[in-house]
Amino acid sequence: MKPLRIKAIAHKELIQIWRDPLSLAMAFMMPVMLLFIFGYAITLDVNDLKTVVYDRDRGSASRELIDGMSASGYFTVVGEVHDQREIDRYLDSGEALVAVSIQEDFSKKLHKGIPAPLQVIVDGSDSNTATIALGYINALSEGYASRVAGMRGARPLPIVDPRIRVWYNPDLKSRNFIIPGLIAIIMAVIAALLTSLTVAREWERGTMEQLIATPVRVPELIIGKLLPYFGIGFVDVLLSVLLAVFLFGVPLKGSIFLLMFLSGIFLFGGLSLGILISIGAKSQLVASQISMVATFLPAFLLSGFMFAIANMPKALRVITYGVPARYFVAILKGIFLKGSTLRLLVMETALLSVFGLVVFAIANRKFRKRIG
Amino acid sequence: MSSGDIAVAVRGLRRTFGDFVAVDSISLEVKKGEVFGFLGPNGAGKSTTIKMLCGLLLPTSGEGTVGGKDIVRETEEIKKNIGYMSQRFSLYEDLTVGQNIDFFSGIYGVAKGRKNERKEWVLEMAGLQDRRSALTGTLPGGYKQRLALGCAILHEPPVLFLDEPTSGVDPISRRNFWDRIYDMSHAGTTVFVTTHYMDEAEYCDRLALIYRGQIIAGGSSADLKERYMKRQVLEIDAEEPVEALEVISRAGLDGVDAAVFGSSLHVVVADEKVAVPELTRILDAAGIGVRKIETILPSLEDVFVTLIETS
After folding, report:
1. How large a percentage of chain A has pLDDT more than 70?
2. Looking at the partner chain, which of A11, A206, A216 has a beta carbon nearest the beta carbon of B90?
C-alpha cells in the first residue's frame, strides 16, 4: 500500500467536496439542523398539563392540594367547574387532559385522620402522557398526605417508606438522555450518507473508468476516500457535542477525548458502510436512498434510543447486535450521563470495532476494478 | 518474430453480453513501438476489445498478453505498464488542469524528482501552460483530449491504449493530437488506437478492420489496398454528382458500385478499360457533363466498403 496514492485520492476528494456547495452544506449543516429540529421536537417530559378542578369541598385542605399541584409546574389549572358533567365537556373537547374531583367532606375526613378519596380523571388517548400524569399525581398526593399526617402529629401511614433517588439524570430531564442518543442516530445517518455518493459519483461521471485502469489498489482507493469524510465526521461530532452541552444544557460528565476516540471508531464503520452501499448502487440517487433507509430506521428503532432493547422480543433483540448505532447510543449516554470510562464501555467499543472492520473488509472485497 | 518483440498478443478472444457477441474470437499481434489501428464502425467491438486488453473487462473465452502479462490473471500488473484513454472524457471536470495532473501523478506513483518535469511536459504537450488553474470542465474539447492523453502517459508507459481519442474534436486538434502520437511512437511507445475515422487509419503502421465483432482484414494500409482491392476505383468529376449517381445506379452495370465522395463520385469497377467508355456514354446520354474521369488510388474507406459488402 502506497501512502502517496492514498494522499492523492484523499486530496482529490477534499477538493471535490470543497467545490460542491451542496455536499459541503450536507456535511456541516445537516447534523446541526437535525440536532436542532429533533432536539427541540422530541421531548418526553410532561409539563403544564391542562387541568380542570371540581372542588366541592372548598376547604383549606382542598385549596392546599390544588395550589400544590399548580406550584409543581406539572399542572396548570385551566378551569374550575361546578358540575360533574362539565368535566366531560372539558375532556371531550381537549381543553383539559386531567380532571380532579374533590368530594365535599375531603377536608373534614383528613382532619379526622380518615382516608379521603380523591377522584382523578385522565385523558388516556395519549397513554404516555397519561401514565406520566398519574405518576405525578400519585407522588403529589402522597407527599401531601404525609404532610397532613405530620401536622397532626400522627406517624405517616405507609410502613415502607421508599426514598427514591434517580441516578445519572437526577432531574429526570428527558432531554439529557435524548440528546446523546440523538447525536448517535444523526451521525449514523450522516456518516453513511456522506460516503455513499463518492463511489457512485465516479461511476456516474465516467471518471471511475480512468481510475480503475491505473495501478491504484482497492484499499488505497477506499482509505483515500474515507479520510476526508473522517475529518468531516469528527467536526460534526464535535459540533453536536458543543450544541448538546451549551445549547441544550446536557451535562458532559465523562471525558471528551474518550468520546471523540470512540466516535472515531464509530465513524470508521459508518463511513465504510456508506462506501459499501455506494459500491453496490452505482448511482448517486439510489445510493443515498439506500443509505438513508439502511441507517436511519435501524438506528432509530433498534438502537435503544427510543425503545429499550431489553423490552424487545428475542428475535429483534438479536438483530440489534448488528446495529452499530446501538453501541454508539450506549457509549454516548454512558460518557455524557454516567461519566463512563473506557473500561465500562469495553464491550461496546470492541463490537463497534468489529463492525467497522467487517464492513471495511466487505467493501474491499466487493469493489472490483472492472467494468460489468 | 520473437515473442520479445510483441507488445500485445491475443488469440481467440471472445466476449459476450447475454446473447450479444460483442467480440467474436479475434486474434491479433501488435509489435513493440508500432502504431496499431483498430478500425471499425461504432458498435463493432472496438471498445470492448480495448477494455479487455486493459484489464477492465474479463474475456468470456480466449487468451492474450499485454507486455507479456496475462489479460485474465495479471490485470493489475498490466495496469502498471499501460496508459489508457477512454472514449468518454474521464478526467475530473471539477478539478483544475494542474490538480488533475497532480492526482494522476500521485496515483501512478511518479517519482518525486520527476513530478514537476512530467507536469510541465504534459502542460506543454497539451498547450495548457497558461491554463493550469482553469477548471477542466471549462476547456474546449481538443484541450481536454490532450490533457487526458497527458494524464494517461505521466508514468511513461511502454504501451498506450487510446479508445476513439479524437471523437468530437475539430480537425486541427485531431492533426495536432496525431503528431503527439507519432512523437511517442518514435520514442518507442507502442500505441494501440481505435478509430472510426478512415483518414486517421492512414496514420497507423498496421491496421485491423473489425466488423460485427470479427476481424475481417489486417495489414498495413498499403497492404490492405493492394490485397483487397482487386477492382479499380474511378473518380468521376461530374456536373451533377447526385444525378450522375442515380443514372449510373439505374444503368445496373455488372460489377459496378458507385458512391458520392464529397463533390465527386467514386465508382468501383472490375476493369477500367471497359468501364470508362461505358460510363462516359451513359452520362452523356443523360445529358450530364463529365469534367474528368480518372483511376485513383483507393482510400481505406473504399477498401472497407468493399470488404463489408463481400463479407
Report:
1. 92
2. A206
Q: What is the pLDDT of residue B3?
A: 62
Instruction: Indicate the pairing of strand B264-269 with strand B232-238.
Output: antiparallel
Find all residues with CB under 8 Å of B96, minimum gap 6, and list them: B132, B133, B134, B135, B136
Query: A164 pLDDT band (50/70/90 cuts)?
Result: low
Q: What is the pLDDT of residue A74?
A: 84
Chain A residue with Cα closest to B78: A215
- Interface predicted TM-score (ipTM): 0.83
Residues of B within 8 A of A370 (CB-CB) are 55-58, 75
- Interface probe with A: pick from B74, B81, B92, B119, most Cβ of A within 10 Å: B92
A49-151 CATH fold: abc type-2 transporter like fold (3.40.1710)
Q: What residue in B sits closest to A370 (Cα-Cα)?
A: B56
Contact B107 A5 (CB under 8 A): yes
- In chain B, which residues have their Cβ closer than 8 Å to the Cβ of A9? 103, 106-107
Whether the CB-CB separation of A270 and A358 falls below 8 Å is answered with no
Strand B35-39 versus strand B20-31 pairing type: unpaired
- Strand-pair category, B69-70 with B6-17: unpaired
- A11–B57 C-beta distance less than 8 A: no
Class of domain B3-225: alpha beta
Q: Which residue of B has its CA nearest to A10?
A: B103
Q: Is B176 in contact with B126 (CB distance < 8 Å)?
A: no
Cβ proximity of B141 and B149 under 8 Å: no
Q: B104 vs A4: CB contact, 8 Å cut-off?
A: no
Domain boundaries, chain A: 3-42+173-366, 49-151
Q: Kindly determine whether residue A8 and residue B106, on different chains, have CB atoms separated by under 8 Å.
A: yes
Residues of B in contact with A213 (CB under 8 A): 54-56, 79, 82, 84, 86
Domain B230-310: CATH architecture, name and number where available: 2-Layer Sandwich (3.30)
Cβ contact (<8 Å) for A4 and B57?
Answer: no
Give 10-residue mean pLDDT values along chain B (311 residues).
80 95 94 93 92 95 95 94 92 96 95 94 93 95 91 94 87 87 92 89 91 91 81 85 86 78 83 85 86 84 78 63
Sequence-distant (≥ 6) Cβ neighbours of residue B70 within 8 angstroms: B63, B64
Band of residue A132 on the pLDDT scale cut at 50, 70, 90: confident
Taking the Cβ of residue B97 and every Cβ of chain A, the question of whether any pair is shorter than 8 Å is answered with no
Query: What pLDDT, on a 0 to 100 scale, did the predictor assign at position A121?
Result: 87
B3-225 and B230-310: identical CATH topology: no
Query: Closest approach of chain A CAs to the CA of B107, in angstroms?
Result: 5
Query: Do the Cβ atoms of A369 and B76 come within 8 Å?
Result: yes
- List, in order, residues 6 or more apart from B163 with CB less than 8 Å away: B46, B47, B50, B51, B84, B85, B86, B87, B194
Q: Domain-by-domain residue ranges, chain B?
A: 3-225, 230-310
Q: Which of A174, A126, A184 is nearest to A304 (CA)?
A: A184
Average pLDDT over residues A131-149: 77
Summarised one tens digit per residue, pLDDT across range A280-297 is 997 999 999 999 999 999
